[in-house]
């Protein structure tokens, strides 16, 4: 069958009819959170975005509850969200939806059956006025439940907690614009939102609580003029929240006493709210509009869109027998959007000819090239011409969210370019729209820091620390999300592995392996009991060649590891307990204890290879016996493998059964990690299988440690156990002069490194006199990693915050470079701590550290061969 033509309109209709929009959205990462009882609607969510999917005629449509411009069919959904959030043109949408249908989409979702037409004909004809009245009644009921009958501000606790003073609250601007909402014993501060019909919704706030009534977001919070009702307004200030408006007034009204109206949108402005703000401008005719949104990517995005959408008061012109506002011409318009990682700006030029359009686009392209050329890390702004004709050219610019300010600069230039292209009577005065950013993230944070006595420079420094802390928290959230995704992938792999292992062929293979292995173990047991020896007796290896030949018969590392462990069980006294008398039993009770494990310090250096711990738990099989744990520990200690065991901890229960445990510590970078993995894994497997010698024996560990060890063990070669264990650390400790290791070291000259300098800063609540603070802990950790540290220089400000800094130096050719690098990264992730170094130095030490970590196991294996 031939593919549909690019311009086939029937194909778009087929997409709408045949594609289940809910299933398509789920494949883009959206999740169903709610749905109608009859299946007539679905609520989807992703990254805080809420969509409602319903049916219209013969296809499904969606609506974004946070942006009433974002709605439509599956065509609009794919067009807006395709291209990793950058959007797709219609041709790209066709291609993507064809691929979806070719992949075999889910059957069309079964919505509730249509009502019986004959039954509908028997009902009264619907009246749109009745529907509007029902919605009005619902809105009135919800608002009345929040504000009550008597609407007044009776509780100022929340406002005082946010630093808002009574003088600000009592300003004429805010009378009747803030109320107390009381539900049962709870009191919240309520900010009403208004539209042309009156009260539209209510936002409630309290400490750790924020709620906007579930009504269409088509109202704005708007104050009275600061000089009272009926006065001529000179300025309108637009912000994201009413709290920011109050904070801005408290901070700045004394400096500039223009008669002002404050407007807030309670978060992301919708299209209806922007239209309302323009209506207020039309009515009040202010001389300027100040955009006072947050100093972050979201606030900059709002300001970019306001620059495109807000205009001086529009004149009324007659239309038929009515009047309407005259819209200004738009030779250039733009709209900013964002996704999880990027901010995009869609720019549309309207022109009289292709040549005029090319000239205008070239002007913008040159400016983008100029800005990209000044970035130290390389170009940051991507520009793409999406379509062009004689009358219109559409471009899309995109930056990382952290670089949103660069798009804002371009928006201001587009604003000036638009005014130049407009007819002179329509041009705005240059100062009509003005941006006013807080020093910190938002105006309420500025107010909080100002009330603490900080000046502008100190507020700016604190804002940087706040931003660093938010970045740390963001990275932690991303790390947690990454960890959860890894766990989900690991679980999926395990389920797939279990599915494969449960096939008849896999079970048959396992049974054959077990029979062969059990025969080998039985032969060893018979030989040790004095029976006729097996032609291939088990014994300790006398040479590496013998070990290699012996282990080659086993396909899986787990079998080889268990045989090696079994040999020690057969060559040494059996790990069983011995009977004790009443006196010794009482002594055992008196000595029984589980040693307390020391908690990890608040800040610890990260070793080049992290030690893992597996806890062996060994119960006596009969009352009043002891020694079984000691026998097992001796078997492990005599194996000459690279793990270490701790002292034995034990208790005795009421039945006289001794329960003991000890820790086995190991590192995943050791050459014998495959054998260690086999010993731990098969000990548990044989104990669960009911083998007598393993009764009451188990090895416990974290799932993360087990999974990490398995990955390393699968990639490692099986190493013989009777090598010289002193060589394990050959790469980390200097060899004695004259030794082979020393001569080998001389043969490979050490690379020449550079000395690097960093500064570590620590901000903390000042510790009590003589007490050890975080700065001292950081210095000890950094010095312990192998770096050189200078003296701590500290000052304490008026708020009791101690600001410390120390100089640190290290060389890139130090053997401890991996540990130094990891320690510096650990310090940087600590709350209140920061590591100041050149970005190239940071990248270099991390790269060198990575090389050390990758090379370390390989060098150790080469020495042991």
TrEMBL record:
Transmembrane segments in this chain: where? none
List the residue ranges of the region (Disordered): 461-514, 526-545, 571-592, 719-754, 781-808, 829-865
Concerning Pfam families, the annotation shows: Toprim_2
Q: Where is the composition biased (Basic and acidic residues)?
A: 463-514, 578-592, 838-850
Q: Could you tell me what this protein is called?
A: Toprim-like
**Organism of derivation:** Hymenobacter psychrophilus
Q: What is the lineage of its organism?
A: Bacteria, Pseudomonadati, Bacteroidota, Cytophagia, Cytophagales
């Amino acid at each position: 069958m031939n593919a549909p033509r690019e311009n086939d309109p029937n194909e778009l209709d087929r997409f709408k009819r045949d594609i289940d929009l809910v299933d398509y959205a789920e494949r883009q990462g959206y999740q169903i959170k709610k749905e109608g009882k009859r299946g007539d609607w679905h609520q989807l969510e992703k990254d805080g975005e809420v969509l409602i999917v319903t049916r219209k005629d013969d296809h499904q449509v969606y609506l974004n509850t946070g942006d009433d411009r974002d709605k439509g069919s599956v065509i609009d959904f794919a067009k807006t969200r395709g291209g990793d959030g950058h959007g797709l043109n219609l041709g790209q949408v066709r291609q993507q939806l064809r691929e979806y249908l070719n992949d075999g989409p889910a059957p069309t979702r079964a919505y509730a059956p249509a009502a019986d037409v004959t039954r509908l004909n028997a009902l009264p004809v619907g009246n749109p006025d009745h529907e509007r009245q029902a919605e009005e009644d619902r809105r009135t009921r919800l608002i009345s439940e929040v504000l009550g009958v008597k609407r007044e501000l009776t509780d100022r606790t929340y406002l005082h907690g946010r630093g808002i003073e009574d003088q600000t609250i009592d300003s004429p601007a805010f009378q009747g614009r803030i109320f107390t909402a009381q539900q049962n014993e709870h009191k919240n501060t309520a900010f009403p939102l208004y539209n042309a019909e009156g009260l539209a919704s209510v936002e409630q706030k309290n400490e750790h609580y924020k709620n906007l009534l579930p009504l269409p977001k088509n109202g704005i919070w708007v104050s009275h003029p600061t000089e009272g009702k009926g006065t001529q307004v000179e300025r309108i200030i637009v912000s994201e929240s009413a709290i920011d408006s109050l904070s801005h007034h408290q901070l700045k009204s004394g400096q500039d006493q223009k008669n002002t109206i404050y407007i807030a949108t309670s978060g992301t402005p919708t299209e209806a709210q922007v239209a309302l703000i323009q209506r207020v401008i039309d009515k009040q005719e202010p001389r300027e509009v100040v955009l006072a949104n947050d100093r972050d990517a979201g606030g900059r995005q709002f300001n970019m869109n306001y620059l495109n959408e807000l205009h001086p008061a529009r004149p009324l012109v007659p239309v038929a027998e009515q009047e309407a506002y005259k819209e200004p011409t738009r030779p250039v318009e733009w709209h900013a959007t964002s996704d999880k990682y990027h901010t995009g700006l869609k720019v549309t030029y309207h022109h009289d000819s292709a040549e005029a359009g090319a000239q205008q686009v070239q002007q913008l392209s040159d400016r983008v090239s100029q800005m990209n050329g000044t970035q130290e890390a390389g170009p940051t702004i991507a520009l793409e011409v999406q379509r062009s004709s004689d009358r219109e050219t559409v471009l899309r610019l995109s930056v990382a969210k952290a670089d949103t300010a660069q798009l804002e600069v371009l928006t201001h230039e587009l604003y000036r370019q638009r005014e130049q292209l407009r007819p002179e009577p329509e041009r705005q005065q240059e100062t009509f729209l003005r941006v006013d950013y807080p020093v910190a993230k938002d105006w309420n944070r500025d107010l909080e820091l100002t009330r603490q006595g900080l000046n502008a420079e100190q507020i700016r420094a604190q804002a940087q620390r706040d931003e660093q802390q938010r970045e740390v928290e963001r990275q932690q959230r991303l790390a947690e999300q990454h960890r959860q995704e890894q766990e989900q992938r690991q679980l999926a792999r395990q389920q797939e592995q279990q599915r494969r292992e449960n096939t008849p062929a896999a079970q048959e293979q396992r049974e054959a392996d077990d029979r062969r292995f059990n025969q080998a173990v039985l032969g060893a047991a018979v030989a040790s009991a004095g029976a006729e020896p097996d032609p291939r007796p088990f014994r300790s290896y006398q040479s590496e060649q013998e070990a290699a030949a012996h282990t080659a018969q086993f396909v899986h590392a787990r079998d080889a590891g268990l045989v090696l462990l079994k040999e020690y069980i057969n060559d040494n006294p059996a790990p069983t307990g011995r009977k004790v008398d009443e006196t010794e039993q009482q002594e055992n009770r008196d000595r029984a204890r589980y040693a307390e494990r020391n908690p990890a310090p608040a800040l610890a250096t990260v070793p080049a290879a992290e030690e893992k711990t597996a806890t062996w738990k060994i119960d006596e099989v009969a009352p009043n016996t002891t020694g079984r744990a000691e026998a097992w520990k001796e078997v492990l200690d005599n194996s000459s493998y690279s793990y270490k065991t701790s002292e034995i901890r034990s208790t005795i229960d009421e039945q006289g059964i001794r329960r003991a445990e000890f820790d086995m510590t190991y590192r995943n970078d050791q050459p014998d990690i495959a054998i260690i993995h086999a010993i731990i894994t098969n000990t548990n497997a044989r104990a669960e299988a009911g083998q007598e010698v393993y009764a009451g024996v188990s090895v416990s560990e974290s799932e993360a440690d087990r999974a990490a060890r398995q990955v390393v063990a699968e990639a490692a070669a099986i190493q013989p156990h009777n090598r010289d264990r002193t060589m394990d650390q050959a790469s980390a400790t200097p060899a004695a002069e004259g030794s082979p290791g020393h001569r080998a070291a001389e043969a490979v000259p050490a690379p020449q490194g550079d000395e690097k300098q960093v500064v570590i800063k620590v901000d903390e609540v000042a510790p009590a006199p003589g007490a050890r603070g975080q700065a001292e802990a950081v210095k000890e950790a950094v010095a312990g990693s192998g770096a050189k540290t200078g003296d701590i220089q500290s000052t304490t400000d008026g708020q009791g915050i101690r600001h410390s800094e120390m100089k640190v130096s290290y060389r890139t050719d130090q053997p401890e470079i991996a540990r130094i690098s990891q320690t510096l990264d650990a310090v940087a992730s600590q709350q209140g701590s920061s590591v100041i170094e050149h970005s190239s130095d940071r990248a270099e030490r991390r790269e060198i550290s990575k090389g050390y970590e990758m090379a370390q196991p390989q060098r150790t294996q080469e020495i042991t061969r």
